Amino acid sequence: MEKIISVGIDIGTSTTQVIFSHITIENLASAYSVPQIDIIDKNVFYKSEIYFTPLISETEIDGQEIKKIIESEFKKANVAKKDISTGAVIITGETARKKNASLISEQLSDLAGDFVVATAGPDLESIIAGKGAGADKLSEKLNKLVINFDIGGGTTNIALFESGQVIDTACLDVGGRLIQLDEQNRLQYISKKIKKLAADLNLNLEIGKKVENSELEIIAEKMASVLSEVLKAGEKSSDYNYLITNHDLSKNYAINYVSFSGGVADYINNDHSGDLYKYNDLGIILAQKIRESSLYKDHQVYQAEETIRATVVGAGSHTTDISGSTITYTDNIFPLKNIPIIKITPEEEKLSKEELVKVIKKKLDWYDLDFEAQTVAVAMKGKENFNFAEITELAEAIIAGMEKIIKLDFPLIVILENDAAKVLGQTINRLSKEPKAVVSLDGIKVDNGDYIDIGKPLARGKVLPVIIKTLIFGK
């Protein structure tokens, strides 16, 4: 048994925070088996204050100020950089769209340990927030559909969970800091989309002009109405379609539970009789209008485990050795670091080849490769015994589904739980039109949201060391 220190750093549209935790890991395998190291306990021992994310401009993050904040929190937590074993830096929301987001993530990865560093697009952010809120665990415990609305400063990220697995996501440009005021309620900032929404509501909002409470209520009520449409059947309004960030839910679902996370959620679940403009934005008024809406009133609301802190508290790492006799890999491409996983469920594996291709492409889009090019690994359980036709069809589906990765000239990485990686990798190589770097591994169990490192071959190429990094969420 070993206890390590992990750190989670969340840089969002509105807020930045740092969380330190103790992660306890233990080897559950026998002395004569391949190590099976699991995370058996986590304990958050320090939470920073929540800072407004410092920006140089509307399009640029202030990296130096971010670094100062994080370094000061290390001191307050009495944690030295050398004490950190692992961690996660997650850049989310509007902040992930800033032009220097990738540079910031690189700078912060040097702060400590071997960090998972992710610039999260809307889909990945939805999943991270939903897991942080505990929606995945509730869906697994009750075997019900649970949808989480993570309402932040710039976006509302939506994730739907069934039996512990994410099955759909969506994102809307609805958030508490899309309108910002000064101490005299004069307008300091309004996003382009909300300015148009206000104009359509016959509201003339101009920078520097005082905004009336009634005007903000009208806008917040419209935002809440748009969020309510997520769970309504039938044709959506033009406002709804306008505020969609990337895509809607793929179909109408019979939702059992609704949960809310993000900064706005604190004021949805609790009555607020204090200053509506405590944060000089629309957030508290928006929360009140959501509480009055059909989204809240017509559904069974589950109290999220976390609201504004519904994010990672770090990353737990464990190492697995894999037998070289059942794997395929291309030389001279290792080590590979911090590769995100998309997991195909056993139910999805049973789909037709055409449907499986669609599923892989959709999950690949979680990582917004058009915005930030990176390799992604596809994982699945896989059958214990494939016949020739089955392995050929699976290889064809992976090649077609991972087309974007192949075109970016990244290694094609496939991970199976069952013992079929060698024949699958060989089949992918055989069917590929051009020679590509292929890594096909088995005996590895991973999930959506995990990251892996693959080290250089050991034991004369018979073993590839793999480190699995699981994002950790805490109460």
UniProtKB/TrEMBL annotation:
<protein>
    <submittedName>
        <fullName>Ethanolamine ammonia-lyase reactivating factor EutA</fullName>
    </submittedName>
</protein>
<dbReference type="InterPro" id="IPR043129">
    <property type="entry name" value="ATPase_NBD"/>
</dbReference>
<dbReference type="Pfam" id="PF06277">
    <property type="entry name" value="EutA"/>
</dbReference>
<dbReference type="InterPro" id="IPR050696">
    <property type="entry name" value="FtsA/MreB"/>
</dbReference>
<dbReference type="InterPro" id="IPR009377">
    <property type="entry name" value="EutA"/>
</dbReference>
